[in-house]
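Self-study notes.
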Amino acid sequence: MRALLERFGVPLCPEPDVDQGDPFLIECPEPVDGGFRYLVYVTAAGFPVYGSPDLVRWTRVGESLASASAEAWCWAPCVRRVPGLARPWVMLYSRARGAGDVDGHRDHLIRRADSERPEGPFVDSGEVLTADLDFAIDPDVWVGPDGPLLTFAADYVADEPYGTGLVEAGISADLRRLTTPVRPVARARSDWQLYDPDRSMPWKRIPGVSWAGGRTVRWFTMEGPAALVSPGGRRTLLYSGGNFAGFYGIGVLQQDPGGRWVDLSPAPEDCLLAPAPERGLHGPGHCSVLATGSGRQLLCFHFRTGPDRPRQFGIVPLEWDRSDHPYVPVDR
């Protein structure tokens, strides 16, 4: 773990021309070709996958999603192993209507793909899990006492503050369909979670809002959930807030004894990870959490080494304090 802390703020597999946003880290049951025990999947055309034998030395393996197309934007893969399936490695991801500033943000639906091997190739299996929603991204699967849950990001537009927030639903054991109605978890409302103070989305239907005449809205964002349980047994969600191309950070939600979700990061200084330009850390966000076979937890996230640089992935240990809250031991 010391080697990872020494690499904090340093890309683990620097590729200046490849964006490595939304990284998802897994540990393979046995090494794959090349001797890789760990894999990271990122958001870019074909969902590039990177492999490592030790979490420090990383190599690009190739593209993991065979059916990905440049004709539509695909975001944020989540990969889980489902024992008993003929193709036991399952990837959930979102795909938009098309690409570009408009169609790349329209009609994102969470889809399913599967593979015989963790490095792929994954092939879309045809299931669409969120066909009843007009926007759904950033899936994460957590298995609780009542079965698996899918947590993801969706839009809140019935009233203000408008924006993207978090929701959840039960999901079948084979990750092919939702088994319960979608229910709200949390919505963005803090100042640091503002995505755009004047956002125009003429493709988006918001009750009472007409986009004619250049109308805009204040749009907040809470996305990229990573579901886990604290050592004290409390459900915890890490999330990303703000604008991934500007001020972006990783916040923490945790359930209180009554089951109510509480935002532990109402301000940037309360974030698990916030921008630290003096350390070369810009826009940290969209994380996944891996519980390793040794019992340690690892936080995999993306960041920029400069305000205009492509996103790169990093990994740091995740620890818990006496209040049962997570922290990153960078300065401890």
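Second protein, same conventions, sequence then structure:
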Amino acid sequence: MKTKLSLVTLMLILATVFSGKAQTLDAKYGLDSAKTVLHASLYNELVKQKNYKDALPHWRIVFKEAPRFQKTTYKKGVSIMRYMIAKTKNPKYVDSLMMVYDQRIKYFGNNRKYGKGYILGRKGGDLYRYKNNDLTSVKEAYNIMKQAVELQGNIVEATVLDKCMECAKVLVEKGELPKEEVVNDYLKFVEICDYQIQKYPKKKNNLEAAKTNIENNFFAAGVASCETLGEIFTPKFKANPNDMDLLNKILKLLNRQECEESPLYAMVAEKKYELDPNADAAHNLARMFIKKKDYAKTKDYLGKAIELEVNAENKADLYFKMASIYFSENNLQAAKNSALKALSHRPNW
């Protein structure tokens, strides 16, 4: 298919022709500057028209003969390869797509904003997208995305975390990944999502959707039973009983799975209250005692949590729980008083 070149593009090509030829592959314009500019112009015009098939041979020349020419080569290359995969169903184009990512890392991996970590995240995501029926490829995609997370930390794309947890679910179900690693991934990924939700409020909806997918895949993986969590975290707790960050992570998981009756929960909740007797720590102990039907101690710790809590909505929740306990004991006046106090802290309830 023929395509029209703009006057500016033609002038650029002519100027490049008379500027001489580059002698090395690593030069910006590659082995032949005029050839590079010509074919780059052709494939760019064709990509704009979404004519990816005809763009491919022109793009391939730039990719092979002028790999340092511009970052756009790789961005457009991904679009071309994705089209060819969808159109032909030929797995060779998946391999070519992976090559695009690898070469971008080689020549543009030091880019400050879109460097190696960013590229690996995209590479791993696409490998899983196109080869999720092949367990070896799923494992490779998981490892690639885990490397992206390590390199980028809190700025890694949420979609990478989402897809990485999806890979982890597949792998642990097939016995290819330790349960403990999946739990650690979950804790890290959710922490990064929470950080980004706070930092990028305009992206809140997308980030929360990614976080929900991460949670759904994690809990669907079947690695978060009370027994399994106890096996994983009891030795960690005993090795570092004063690590408040660890205590909070353990309690978050145990509360999510309603494991308040587990021996680990008792040890961790009591240690947290000992180290930092705040509202959250008191509430954890109240949860434990209500599961044991020890209502006297439940009310005692709920009272302490209410006293220490500064957030109005949280305080309302605590008063409502207190009202529910009084009601179960048929202490109707006390139940009413606690319910009214809950209402005073959350008037629209």
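Instructor comment on the second fold: Residues 197 and 203 are 7 Å apart (CA to CA).
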